[in-house]
From TrEMBL:
Protein name: Cytochrome c556
GO cellular component: periplasmic space
Binding site for heme c: 134, 137-138
Coiled-coil portions: none
Signal peptide: 1-20
Swiss-Prot/TrEMBL keywords: Electron transport, Heme, Iron, Metal-binding, Signal, Transport
GO biological process, one term: electron transport chain
InterPro entries: Cyt_c/b562, Cyt_c_II, Cyt_c_prime, Cyt_c_prime_subgr
GO terms for MF: electron transfer activity; heme binding; iron ion binding
Modifications made to the protein after synthesis: Binds 1 heme group per subunit.
Source organism (scientific name): Thalassococcus halodurans
């Protein structure tokens, strides 16, 4: 487990995420929210490169893409148990339409696998499909 080799940066990040979800009591709900925040952070790095907020760097972009790939693959396991919490935004339909939920997380895996982070242009094309995969799942399974 990578969490056994915590560096200082990871500790700071974990502390920040704990604060963001301070009101969440259920550990499984908190873990799946933290997974989504990690997904948002990797997407944010790629998005910031595309927007020119940080310089494009192919190695950094590929690292963010690979992190996103790991996290996308971890979605079904993070949601397998129907844990709940007053703060959850997870729709109960996840567990009644489980196969579709897994299919939507596989769509995200496929979009991240297909994305090519070697140049700004290819990354831009790939990010469109990745963003669409987030939206497709949130539309059905995340309550705002
Ligand atoms: C297969 C379904 C699925 C996919 C794909 C998915 N999400 Fe989510 N996401 C959810 C669900 C369900 C929740 C609500 C979890 C909860 O509150 O228990 C959520 C919550 C979130 C949250 C809120 C976390 C918090 O602070 O509580 C963020 C941010 C987020 N997703 C970002 C993303 C981004 C960005 C992508 C795409 C790169 C993505 N998600 C892809 C299902 C998905």
């Amino acid at each position: 487990m990578k969490h056994l080799v915590l560096g200082f940066g990871t500790l700071v990040m974990a502390a920040t995420m704990a604060m963001a979800h301070g009101g969440v009591k259920d550990p499984l709900v908190k873990a799946r929210m933290d997974l989504m925040v990690e997904i948002k952070d990797s997407t944010g790095v790629l998005g910031n490169m595309l927007k020119g907020k940080i310089p494009f760097d192919a190695a950094q972009a590929e690292a963010a893409r690979l992190a996103l790939l790991d996290h996308a693959k971890a979605i079904p396991a993070a949601f397998e148990v129907q844990a709940t919490d007053p703060k959850t935004e997870a729709a109960p339909a996840i567990w009644t339409d489980w196969d579709d939920f897994v299919a939507k997380s596989n769509d995200m895996v496929a979009a991240v696998e297909a994305a090519d982070a070697s140049s700004m242009d290819s990354l831009r094309a790939g990010m469109g499909a990745i963003g669409a995969s987030c939206k497709a799942c949130h539309k059905s399974y995340r309550i705002d």
